[in-house]
Amino acid sequence: MSFEQIATEDKQRALAELTEVKSLFASRGWFPGTSGNLSIRVGDYKPDEFHFAITASGKDKSLSTSEDFLFVDQAGKPCETTRLKPSAETLIHCEIYRQTGAGAIFHIHSVFNSIVSELFWERKSIPVDGVELIKAFNIWDEEAHIDIPIVSNFAHIPSIVPEVTERLDPRIPGIMLRKHGIYAWGANAFEAKRHLEAFEFLFEYVYRWELLQRKA
Ligand SMILES: CSC[C@@H](O)[C@@H](O)C(=O)COP(=O)(O)O
Ligand SMILES: [Zn+2]
Fold it and tell me: Where is each Class II aldolase/adducin N-terminal domain found (predicted)?
C-alpha cells in the first residue's frame, strides 16, 4: 500500500491522537529541553512497507503548531515534500515497528528512567519483582518478574539500532536507552500510553526501593 492509498481519515486520526498525547505528556513535564518523540502508524502493515506520523525534530513539544508532525515511510524518509525534519531518532521507531508491528511508539526522557538505567547498566536490564503495575503489560503471573532491557546510547543514532534489534523482548513493550530515555510501544496509542505510564511508575518504584535497600 502506497502512502497515497492510505485513507485521509486514517492520517487525520493519527495526527489528532498525536496532538492529544503530546499535549498531555507536555503537561506532565515529560519533554524537557525539546527531548522525546512520538509516532503513530497509519495504513496497512508489512515488515518491509509501512508508514507513520512522527514528531518533527527539535521542536518545543509543549507548543502546538501546524508544523509538529510529518509522515515518513519504513526507511524514515518523508512521504511528502516538507521543510520539516523527522525526529533525529526516527530510525529507532522504524526498527521497533519492523520488529513488533506495533501501532504507536512513545519516547520520553525522565530523571528516574535515566538513573535506573545507570544503576542497572552492568546487568543490562532493570529487574522488577511482583509489582502490580506489571499487569499493564498484560503479564498476569502471580509475583511476576520482568527484566526491562537497557541498550547502549550513542550520539550516532544508526549505531543504537543493532542492539535494539538484538535485545527486544516480545514480552516487554519497551526498551531503555542508557542514561537517555524509554521507548514504549503498543498496538495503538491507548496501549502505548498505558505501557509508558507503567514503565515510568516502575522506574520510580525501583529507584526508591533500591535507595531504601542501600540505606538499610
Ligand atoms: C535535546 S535532547 C534530546 C534529543 O537528543 C533526543 O534524544 C530526543 O529525544 C528528541 O530528539 P528529536 O529529534 O526532537 O526527536
Ligand atoms: Zn531521546
Answer: 16-207
